[in-house]
Amino acid sequence: MDANEIRQKFLDFQTKHGHKVVQPAPLVLENDPTTLFTGSGMQPLLPYLLGKEHPEGTRLCDAQPCMRLQDIEDVGDPRHTTVFEMLGNWSLGDYFKEEQIRNFFEFLTKEIGLDPEKIYVTCFIGNEKYNIPRDTEAAEIWQKVFAEAGVEAEIAEIRTAEAGNKRGIKPGERIFYYDDKENWWSRGGGIESTPIGDPCGPDSEVFYDFGEELQDEAKYGLAHPASDGARFMEIGNQVFMQYRRCEDGSFVELEKKNVDFGGGLERIAAAAIGSFDVFRTSLMRPIVAKLEEISGKSYDNNTDEMRVIADHIRGAYLLAAQGLIPSNKTQGYAMRRLVRRAILRALDLGISANFLAEIVPIVAENYKDLPDSILTHRENALDVLLHEENAFRKTLNKGLKELGKLTKNNKILDGKDLFKLQDTYGFPLELSVEECYREGIELTKDYLKEFEAALKEQRERSQTASKGMFKGGLEDHGEQTVKYHTACHLLLAALQKHISPDIMQKGSNITADRVRFDFNLDHKMTPEEITAVEDQVNEWISADLPVVFDEYEKTYARDTLKAHGQFWDKYPEILKVYTIGDFDNPVSREVCGGPHVEHTGALGHFRIKKEESSSAGVRRIKAVLE
């Protein structure tokens, strides 16, 4: 059974159970500044999970293409991809745990034919601090479902992934309790990060066991469902939205409870063929086969390179087919990065000529069943990608010329030379090193350390520049301190929006417990002004806006991006800029060395505790995140 068959079987199965099929959303959502890409199947349906009535009713399903670039560095292993397809079904105040668990188990075992003996599940262990009980209801339903299939299913308590790595699983155990890091869903992450007013709740994840022989105890510890090894792979997650977080931080049960199910098509397809490698599924294998043909090399000996190429070209095609053009901004930059990383890995395989013309049509064939409503520019996708391939190869040729100039007088290249090639000409380090070996160009013994030193020096210049704006700086780089650092940016933006656009930061002190923020203002803030600023920050937090950064030339950051900064004459020529919200119409854009959270939804509730005088013409705000 190939992936396209599984997708259709899922939609047919859900339709049989009263669900209406809704059209998938584009990867790039229009007029949505909260995220770069659609990163989950539930994202387009969030308004309906928050209470809005859906025109198609209370039972919905779809197959949603998704993209998560936070996984880009993990691509190369057998299961991580930047682009994937999520099979989803939802109950909006209709059925709940019993029907959901039974239906998903039936789909996996009866429709797809998975062996129930290889299915393992996890449930939420509860949280005493917030009076949320363990999800015995879900665990007991699972136990009944397994028993009806003739499968022994004892319930065990593991709590954390770290504990599981030491404990492993005992014979007969099939249902496991974990804490909120593993089995709680909210837009902010774990229980502590659940945004005020949001629906949230325990989830029950479903895993497939690919065999004890894949257990790597030396590397990962003993295998269990939440471990990092190859033995267990998550193939679906059932979120039971049964709580809402209140203003005081507590949780209350919802009157109308929702179910949000998401299952990775690629992962279910991998389970269906009994392979822990998603790149052997029908959505990936034809691409890999063509790469083997073009390069003359085998997948088994070049897995990293071929996995990266297959994944990245899939993602780039879907973006191009939706009308996106490679650029140096936001989604366009992400698309450019995917194409260029794929080309560099093709060079590693010895593919020096243009190759996308042979790969892209295979990807297009795999996605021919996706509707034209989201792939509105599929006819132009190949031309867009070929243009980007040609342009990048010209960049690489420039780098080769500069490399030739550096070695003209038989000079031994050092790490600073290699850094200049990458930083100025876009010629990657690994490519420079490979070319030096190929041409017999000598490198200094410590070229890698020298390269890293040059890179560190550039970063320090950028961070030094931002210290003028953040006097006192961060107490540490712990998670809570980083949250306050991001809140500091939102606070400045809110002051500029509601009090005066001329407000500048005059200093700050950020710890893991609070932010202290100084700014220019010639009067004491009124209670109405304080409330307006506080509400604005919380509105931006609730919107779960993306927080992204990049390095730019100083003049481009100041004149084109209009980044907020105070010490332009002291900043280095290349500096780091953080943007919060939509790139073209951001909530905040500041010169800053970082670090920050990736999404504002992780911050929690912002509260101004005190507003007071700091010095003549300077006010001070003390605020906390709750």
Count the helices. How many? Answer: 19
Strands, count: 17
- Overall CATH class of the largest domain: Alpha Beta
Low-confidence stretches: 465-476
Query: Judging by the overall fold, what is the CATH architecture of the largest domain?
Result: 2-Layer Sandwich
Query: Whole-number radius of gyration?
Result: 26 Å
CATH topology of the largest domain: BirA Bifunctional Protein, domain 2
The proportion of strand residues reads: 15-25%
Keywords:
626 residues; alpha+beta; BirA Bifunctional Protein, domain 2; Threonyl-tRNA Synthetase, Chain A, domain 2; 3 domains; ten-stranded mixed beta sheet; four-stranded antiparallel beta sheet; globular
Walk me through what this model shows.
- By secondary structure, this protein is of the alpha+beta class.
- The chain has helices at residues 3-16, 46-49, 97-111, 136-148, 161-167, 180-183, 217-220, 265-272, 285-295, 303-321, 330-348, 356-366, 381-406, 415-425, 429-439, 447-467, 479-498, 527-542, 554-560; strands at residues 20-21, 59-67, 83-92, 119-124, 154-159, 173-178, 184-185, 199-209, 232-245, 251-264, 505-510, 515-520, 547-553, 574-580, 588-591, 606-615, 618-625.
- Strands 1, 2, 3, 4, 5, 6, 7, 8, 9 and 10 form a 10-stranded mixed sheet that branches. A 4-stranded antiparallel sheet has the order 11-12-17-16, covered by helices on one side.
- The longest helix has 26 residues, at 381-406.
- It is globular.
- Residues 465-476 have low confidence and may be disordered.
